[in-house]
Each structure stands twice: as structure tokens, then as C-alpha cells.
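If your schedule permits, I should be very grateful for your opinion on a structural question. I have a record of one protein: its chain in single-letter code and its fold written as C-alpha cells. Kindly check, if you would, that the fold set down in the C-alpha cells agrees with what the sequence suggests. I remain grateful for any guidance, and I place the record below:

***
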Amino acid sequence: MAYMSLRNEYMNMPPVTRAYTTACVITTLAVQLELASPFQLYFNPILILKQGQLWRLITTFLFFGTFGFNFFFNMIFTYRYCRMLEEGSFRNRTADFVLMFVFGAVCMICFAFFVNLLFLGQAFTIMLVYVWSRRNPFVRMNFFGLLNFQAPYLPWILLAFSVLLGNAVYVDLMGIAVGHIYYFLEDVFPNQRGGFKILKTPSLMRTLFDPLPDDYQRLPEEQPGGFQWGNQNNRPANENNAEHNQEQNDNAENR
């Protein structure tokens, strides 16, 4: 019974959250069982560029350390805020959510070339938390029953807690910076006077992650050529006949 409820809960997870958290757990489990080594997973620009070890661009986001408090703490926050984002502001917008993942990963990798960072999973989690907190500014939060605050302060509370645990402060700062860049480009700049949407999800990505249902009826603006406003020549013949008859009736009444 417990297995079925756990399985149902797992299958009810939104797809991106399920895929990412599963990959993180499997990667950590592989290291724990000595099937893989952290030395094969960490971000190393020299090995990536000179030896073509491109998998490090992905595995650097999947390893949170061996099983312990730090691992479970990060996984809880990753699962919670990744799921709330996907079921909240990204509901029915899986392609846009994947684009946010790609954007955040690319930005962090670019930063990592100039900063000595081995694993970027914690920074990625902070990015997810930051975006969620800015999109839910009025939510009241409670941190271990000690602090009550508004959601936008959550990334900074986690930053302070990370410092108390002895973690490097610039890891969380990078996650906050990348999260703010995404939030500004996606939510702030397009709403400014003269602003426009910079991050546009490619049509191929929408085809892969947001397939249309079989009974979907295309809107007029989605048809090839869009609306036919003012195009008198393309109107159906019955509409033209109706207008002609109306004109004849009006003329008869005026006589």
C-alpha cells in the first residue's frame, strides 16, 4: 500500500521536476555505491574543452554531495520550489520552464569559467527559489519556526544559513544573480515602456514539450495569414448575398 501511494505521488509530479530530481538522486546514489566518482562529475573547463568531456556540463548540476544533511536539505528545496514553479507560474508551459532551465544553466556555466566552482547544483536551486520568491512576493514564510518573513527574503535567508554551514558564499550569490537576470528579462523589462520579450521559446521546444491535444481548435490568429479583417474578396458568397439582399430591402423601404 505504501509502495502504491509513493508510486502515485512520484507519477503525479510534473515532468520537469520529476526528471531533474530523479537525475540528482540517481547521480548521488551512483557515487554512494562507487559506480561513479565525483572526479568524473565536477565542472572542469580544461577537460571539457581539451578532452571533450561534455557530460560535465550536465553532471555538475546533478551532484549535491553524498547522502547527508546537506544533500537532503538541498533536495527538499529543489523538489519543493521546482514543483511549485512548474505547477504555478509555468502551468501548461513546460517548454518555457525548460527554457528557464537552459538559460540558468548556460549563465552559470559562463560564470563558472571565471570562478572556481566544481558543482553548480546548489546555485541552481537558489535560482529556482529566487524566481519563485519574486513571483510570489506576498507569501508569508517560516524558517524552522524561528523566522517569519515575506517570500522575497527567502534567498537571502538561505544564503545566511549556507554561510553558517560553512559553504562558499559565492555559490548562493551566483544563483541569486542568475535568478535575478532571468526575472528581469522575463517579468520586468517586457513590461517597461518600450520593453519587449527577449527570452522567446523556440517553436521546436514547444513542439517537443507542449504538444497540442487532438481536439484542439486553432484560434483565428493562429491560422496561416491570421485574421482576414478588411479582406472583402475572401468573404464567403453567402455573406455577400446577405448584404446584397439587405441593400435591396433598404432601397425598397426608402421608395
Summary: The longest helix spans residues 169-188. The two ends are 85 Å apart (CA to CA). Residues 70 and 165 are 9 Å apart (CA to CA). The beta strands are 140-143, 147-150.
